[in-house]
Structure formats: structure tokens, C-alpha cells
Amino acid sequence: MSMNRLLATAMLVVACGSVHAQDLGKVCHATSSYDLTVQSDRLVFDRAAPSPTRVVLSQGMLQTDGQSVSLSAEDQDRLELFQRDLRALMPRVKAVAQQGVGLTMKAIDDESGSLSLDADTRAELDRRLAAHSAELRQRIAASQSTHDWHGDAANQYANQVVDDIAPLFASALGQQALNAALSGDLQQAAELRDRATNLTAGFQPRLQQRLQALRPEIQALCPDIQRLSELQQGVRASNGRPLNLVLIGR
Question: How many CB atoms lie within 10 A of CB 173?
Fold first, then answer.
């Protein structure tokens, strides 16, 4: 469903490249063409095309593209359950995303341990990682819309992380390589370059392996997402088309 963007990109923290965790679409086979915005009195689903491009659910009311839809008593009850269950699911999705942030930051910290950073650089890296972790966690907690996690927004944040921590690695490794070269230890200088290359090339698959630990947490969401899909079945927009707010594939 549309919340898979929140889950996937909330776990997007970059070190030497973009890293995407497994998302609801891969694990639960759940997708949506809509973005979701959660407001105090309504749920708003929107997309560029096709119609309906805007669906509003609020206390037994359904509106699509600005037109109120007449609901049977059964459909009204099911949509009220849909809203209740979706609101209840959001904190659970965010909790998994928060776990992903922790795993990712720990992975960056552990990977940097292979670089033999000096104490000052190590302390500064820890400080910056803690700051980025706190900021990302706050963003997840405060977010009420999947619009917050579109590609451009996620990439912009990722680039900020890279721009902040990459110079630390470059400076530390450069100094180590320079010291080795000046002392005549060309083999150590070459090993430093190889170590940096391995960190860059191998970080993504190693992080993906770590994030497999989240698979049971994501799988636990699947029955509730399946229920959301079932609750909206048969409800149609003002133009007669099915809502299809949540789709479950095979």
C-alpha cells in the first residue's frame, strides 16, 4: 500500500550509496497508486491518474474527486472500520521504520570500525550519526503523509547524510595513507585503499542482510493490510470505478 514508501524510505540512510530495505510491497505483496495523508478528521488519498485522483474518507462519508458518494449501511460500516484499522496500523509501521533506522546506523558504525579511525574522528562520527539518527526518527514520528517520503525528499536527505559523514572517512583514510606512504610502507597504503573500496562496494548487501531481521516485524503487518484490502472491496467512486485504495498481489 502507499505506506510502503514510508517504511522503505524511512530505512533509507545512505553510506557510500543508497540503501533500500525490503518494504511492504515485497513482503506483504501490498501496493497502492495513491499517496496517503492522515488528518485528525479524515484520510485523504491522492494520485495523478487515473480518476478518481482524490478520495476522502471521514466519519462514514466518502468523497471522490469532490463528489459525495452515497453509501449503503454495510459500505458505511466497512469504511468506518477501514479508517479505524488504518489509523491503528500507522504507529506499527512507524515502529518498524524506527527499528530500521537503528539497524542502519549501527551498520554504519560497525563498518567504520574496520577503518581504524583515530579517537577524534571516531568521536565526531558518533556525534554526527547520533544527530542524523535523532533527526530521522523525529521525521518518522512527525510524518502524517507519504508525500514526505517521495524519491526527491528521501534522496535529498540521503545526500545530506553523505555530505556530512563522507569527509570524515576521506580525511582519516587520506591521512593514514599519506603517513604510510611517507614512511615508505606502500603496502599499507595499498591496503588502506582496498579497505575503503571494500567498504564502499560491500556495504549495501551487508546492510540488506542485517535488515532481514525486520522481516518478521513486517510480516506481522500483513494480515491487517489484507483486512484493509477486504474492507474496501465493492466500494466504488462517484464515477463507478472501484476505489482500490489497497491492492494485494500474488
Answer: 19
